[in-house]
Amino acid sequence: MKLVIAAVLGLMACAGPSRQQLAETSTAQTKRAPANAPPASGSDEDRTQVNDSFDAMQDGQNAHREAAQETPAPPPPPPPPPPPATR
User: Fold this and answer.
1) How far is CA 20 from the centre of its chain?
2) What is the distance between the alpha carbons of residues 32 and 56, in angstroms, rounded to a whole number?
3) List of long-range contacts for 59-63, beta carbons under 8 Å, 24+ apart
4) How far is CA 38 from the centre of its chain?
5) 3-state DSSP call for residue 27?
6) Distance from C-alpha of 17 to C-alpha of 71, rounded to nearest angstrom
7) Which terminus of the chain has a lower count of CB atoms within 10 Å, N or C?
8) Contact by Cβ (8 Å): 70, 21
9) pLDDT tens sequence across 6-41
10) How many CB atoms lie within 10 A of CB 25?
11) Rounded to whole angstroms, how far apart are CA atoms 64 and 27?
C-alpha cells in the first residue's frame, strides 16, 4: 500500500508545468496592488495575513492554469511518403 501511495505521489510531482514555466506566466510577473488599508490592530493584522495568504494561493493557482494552457502540443508527425508507382 505504501508503495502505491509513493508511486502516485511521484507521478503527481512529475506532472504539471515546471517552475520556469510558472515564472514566465503573466500572473507571476504582475505584482498585486494592495486592496486594503494597512492593519491598525492585532485582529486587523491577522485578517490581512489571511487575505494575503488567500491572494497568494489564488495567484499560484492562476499561474498553474496559465502555464498548463501555454504548453504547446507537439507537432503531428509528417505524413508518410506516397508509395512509388509501379508500371
Assistant:
1) 10
2) 9
3) 59/27, 59/28, 59/32, 62/25, 62/27, 63/22, 63/25, 63/27, 63/28
4) 30
5) helix
6) 8
7) C
8) yes
9) 666 665 666 677 778 777 887 777 777 777 778 889
10) 20
11) 9
